[in-house]
Design brief:
homodimer, alpha+beta, Arc Repressor Mutant, subunit A, Gyrase A, domain 2, 4-stranded antiparallel sheet, two-stranded antiparallel sheet, DNA-binding
Chain lengths: 158, 158
DNA sequence: TCCCATAGTGTATAGTTATTCATTTATGTT
DNA sequence: AACATAAATGAATAACTATACACTATGGGA
């Protein structure tokens, strides 16, 4: 069952990094990653992920993740938040992020804003964040999700 | 030829005011306004208007106009700008808006921000704005467009 | 263990949208 | 006006996407 989350993550990855104009195309890209399934399932996945199909400047339509508004200042806020990240550990299926003092709320807020399906919720203190993953979501999935939210974390994790 | 702009305006009107989930539905709504045409043309119009089809919170997909961000404060700015409007006249296919002293830039900026296809560009002085409409766009089309951008103008025009 | 309920999936197909082709309509030029 | 050219449109259809149905796997309870 871990397969589905893998698929969903891959879909987000692909859509956020390149233009995809239909499901057949996306299906092929997923095949290259070793993920084989059908158009029907993909359609359902896209609906689940709330992916939109938007105008590519009048030249056709492409898929886009929701909440990609990226308001001005958003990137700076991300960079700031990521700087406060210290480490992540897992225990009893729960993730525990340690941050510099005072940084926990801002990092948790980044996660909550994205509202990834892999993470049911977060609980932030001053320098600690508790991550509550969905059932059947692996530690690796959680980490990948965090990196997707805050790409700067890639160097800091593992 | 004024018919096409009429259609395009109507489409924007409908989409901005209610949920529409497919072209057949939109076609019927347009019929009620006395605009009869086919799905093929509608598909082309939507592409032209860069209309997106976005997730309706996971429950299906609906059409949405581009640039509907409407940041906080936007409405107040519109009200302010509209207050400075004095009159509009046409000469040689060009529109000339007179405003209270100092208001021209803010009104012109409202127009430019919306970037309506009916208007190629604007030129603002201190109390005068030159509106350069697209070829084949009538005075009425320009006025309707302006009202769509700044609804408060409705009472001030004509 | 054996049901039952639930979620996930593929196949086939229904539903929806874009495009090709033919035709008409508008525009510009002499 | 007469012609050439470009733009707009509808009908038919191709291309694309969503869903009904059947089936399977999984995870509780009894």
């Amino acid at each position: 069952m871990g397969n589905r989350t893998e698929r969903l993550l891959a879909i987000r990855n692909i859509i956020s990094s390149q233009k995809v104009s239909n499901q057949e195309e996306l299906l092929e890209l997923l095949e290259k990653k070793g993920l084989n399934y059908t158009q029907a399932t993909l359609s359902r996945d896209l609906k689940f992920l709330k992916v939109n199909k938007i105008s590519d400047r009048g030249r056709g339509y492409i898929y886009e993740l929701p909440d990609q508004h990226h308001l001005p200042g958003q990137e700076m806020a991300e960079t700031y938040a990521a700087q406060g990240f210290v480490s992540i550990q897992f225990a009893n299926k729960l993730g525990v992020i340690k941050t510099l003092p005072g940084y926990a709320p801002s990092i948790a807020s980044m996660i909550d804003k994205t509202n990834p399906f892999e993470i049911v919720g977060t609980l932030a203190g001053d320098d600690t964040i508790l991550i509550i993953p969905h059932d059947n979501v692996s530690e690796k999935d959680v980490i990948n999700t965090l990196i997707m939210i805050l790409p700067e974390l890639k160097d800091k994790i593992k």
